[in-house]
Automatic annotation (TrEMBL):
Keywords: Cell membrane, Membrane, Transmembrane, Transmembrane helix, Transport. It comes from Amphibacillus marinus. The keyword Transport applies. It is a multi-pass membrane protein. PROSITE patterns: ABC_TM1. GO terms for cellular component: plasma membrane. The chain crosses the membrane at residues 21-43, 83-107, 119-142, 154-173, 194-219, 250-270. GO terms for biological process: transmembrane transport. It is found in: Cell membrane. This is ABC-type glycerol-3-phosphate transport system, permease component. Residues 84-271 form the ABC transmembrane type-1 domain. Belongs to the binding-protein-dependent transport system permease family. Pfam families: BPD_transp_1.
């Protein structure tokens, strides 16, 4: 005899639902305050930027800060488009290859057996514990020996080999049922087809999350001690040089903060629906 279980209904009232919604709205509004503050500062005239006590909302919005920023960038002997190209090139190349390399390494660690597998993954975990300040000197010595100082390689290659991507992707790759991979192999697919057409679509939320992290990190990356040529410097470095000129450029600095925040925010908005979706393999047991 088959018993039909009754569908359970949430044990809460409308008042409880309304309370939850109001609390969530309050938290969302609080978390949006920095974004609103940055947008308002970008359009504040100088007298409002230095007003005390400071005002949260702008009273007399103006585009002078944006005009000042572009005037300063156009006055540079290196065109503004060159800084933009450097940042976009480093961000796109570093992000795409980081996702591919990290996913391939994670796939091998999660779904293949070979000697030294656990040792290799332990090295990846240990690499996450080192601060960039600790590895700054060794990194510079390595780049100098390779002849990569003052080249794109000094910024792109370390981003491709970042250990965070391997660790994140491995955790998701382990959830893929081996039976799905074996079915593809039985149908005649080689490892590259299994990886790109079976494994990668199943972990789409994972590599989209990794895309956001990598894109944000590279978009805000400056040349540091690796890039000295003005023609190879990134946009954040050029904008920091403008801000360093003094208080008279406070308006341009506010426009810079908004400009640097817009692109990663747009990338997150586009990707958020896929990031938060449940994996297609959830609930499947091997």
């Amino acid at each position: 005899m088959v018993s039909i279980s009754k569908r359970r209904t949430p044990n809460r009232s409308r008042f409880g639902d309304l309370t939850n919604i109001l609390v969530l709205i309050g938290f969302a509004a609080f978390m949006a305050l920095p974004l609103v503050f940055a947008v308002n500062n970008a359009f504040k005239p100088l007298e409002e930027l230095f007003q005390f006590p400071p005002r949260f909302l702008v009273r007399n919005p103006t585009l002078d800060n944006v005009r000042d920023l572009f005037a300063l960038m156009n006055a540079s002997w290196v065109p503004f488009t060159r800084y933009m190209f450097n940042t976009v090139f480093i961000t796109l190349i570093g992000t795409v290859f980081h996702i591919i390399v990290a996913s391939m390494a994670a796939y091998v660690l999660a779904k293949h057996q070979f000697p030294g597998k656990n040792l290799f993954f332990n090295i990846v975990i240990m690499a996450l514990m080192f601060s960039p300040h600790v590895t700054a000197i060794p990194n510079y010595l390595i780049m100098s020996r390779l002849g990569w100082v003052d080249t794109y390689n000094a910024l792109v290659v370390p981003a491709i080999a970042a250990p965070l991507g391997v660790f994140l992707m491995k955790q998701f790759m382990e959830q893929i049922p081996v039976s799905l991979l074996e079915s593809a192999r039985i149908d005649g697919a080689n490892e590259f087809i299994v990886f790109f057409r079976v494994a990668m679509p199943l972990v789409k939320p994972a590599w989209l999350t990794l895309l956001i992290f990598s894109f944000q990190g590279l978009w805000n990356l400056d040349g540091g001690t690796f890039v000295y040529s003005e023609e190879l410097k990134t946009l954040p470095t050029a904008l920091q040089q403008i801000v360093a000129t003094g208080f008279s450029r406070a308006g341009a600095a506010s426009a810079i903060a908004l400009f640097m925040m817009i692109v990663p925010l747009v990338v997150f908005i586009i990707s958020q629906n896929n990031v938060i979706e449940t994996m297609s393999t959830s609930g499947i047991k091997e």
